[in-house]
Amino acid sequence: MKFKGKAFKYGDNVNTDEIIPARYLNSSDPEWLAAHCMEDIDADFVKAKKKGDIIAARKNFGCGSSREHAPIAIKAAGISCVIADTFARIFYRNAINIGLPIIECPKAAADIEAGDAVEVDLAKGSIKNQRSGHTFKFEPMPPFAQEIIAAGGLMKYVMNKMKKEAKK
Question: Domain total for the chain?
């Protein structure tokens, strides 16, 4: 899987309440969540983002509560992937479960600035920042995690597996 988009840049400890404020958790509708994604930390995000754009952040992205709403809001907003130094473990798992690619690559996260054009090759484990000209390597996700993301999330992955098994 390859992605190319403009980067939105955030710092350390972006928590799930900043990704999708708790006042919007009365719905699990992805479009509703996307309309309010990042609004408390970046009021212009929803208007400025385009399908395929990328979020880059520093340490501990997705910390806070274990709500699935946070990665759902990001994915529904059209963000193709999130690059950070590190992720909160529950956010990391929730992101894979809903089919949002996330990449731990501290050097790329440090190099990327807001507005940079960034290219990601998930299978090869590479990130290229067009502005700086730097290419960064990261450890690709294991094949099963890439399959879950390619399927659009864990539920779709399991449903596809069940359909294949039923045909045998």
Answer: 1
Q: How far apart, in whole angstroms, are the C-alpha atoms of residue 86 and residue 26?
A: 29
Summarize pLDDT for 97-125 with one digit per residue, the tens: 999 999 999 999 999 999 999 999 998 99
Span 18-52, pLDDT tens digits: 999 999 988 889 999 999 999 999 999 999 999 99
pTM of the model: 0.92
Residue numbers of the domain that contains 148: 2-167
| Token reading at 88 | 């909160």
- 50, 76 in Cβ contact below 8 A? no
Q: The CATH number of the domain where 117 resides is what?
A: 3.20.19.10
Sign of torsion over alpha carbons 8, 57, 79, 73: negative
Residues 6+ apart with CB under 8 A from 2: 119, 120, 121, 122
